[in-house]
Task: structure prediction
Amino acid sequence: MKKKILGVFLAFSMLTLTACGNSGGSSNTSVADNNRAANDNNGADSTPENNTGGNSDTNTEVTKITISTSATTAPFSFTDDDNNVTGYDIDVARAVFERLPQYELEFEVIELHSTRAEVDAGRAQGSANNWNKTAEREEKYFFSDPILDCQYTALFAPDRDISGVGSLDDLAGLSTIVTAGSNVSSVLEDYNEQHSDNPIVINYSDEDFAKMAQDVQDGKYDFVLYPKVQFDIYNNEYHFGLETVDVGADITNSLFNGNPYAYFIISKDNEQLLKDVNAALAEIQLDGTVKAISERYFGEDYSASDWYK
Result:
């Protein structure tokens, strides 16, 4: 079951729970109202001077844009204490569409493995879920310009003798746990197709990362690959006893297809939307808006602003 989230005020039930959400009609507020509310909550500057993108003619037809997201991949996309969809990707998307008054932004929360399927079916025009580029994905979707500069780390139980992980070959024969449809699962599945004689043993789970990390720490699996910035946040809260190993360039290139960034996905029949989103992204990257969002969620600047200079 899925529910659509309009702006920041429509509460929703997480999909792992029974259907207990609001059964009444939803309030369909304007994108300007939604963005103003988001900025008030996040402390962002929502003065008219920031709204430089798009056509200011009030008679311009407004096009509704649906962005799919899972709301289960904190801190990129998750639900806050009031069950509002939020996160780094979500706030960057809101900041983008604040500059684009010709569009009305709507988030669709759905299981992670179905987020891209919604784009495929035309029910969503894009997706915001910490997406990395792969050759297969580039055949099906447009990718925005970068929204996040990211790296991965390999996490092992503390009693393992790991001197380094220079390539995926160093992980062959070991077991790991992944979320189906994630960036890591796609890369490891491709590796196993080419190395069927000694594959990486992949186990799939719908559990959040905290449970995955605990399973590695308990010895149930040998390792897990995870974005460094995201692990640091979890580790500050849970204090895992895991050994962190920086992965080599070969793994980084495999995971990111040579592009160590995260992006928005946009359907290939929305080329004008891609151009508009990229124009707005350039504005908010260079004026420090994305940097401020990054520092709020990560404590550091992972904004990818250097790519735009």
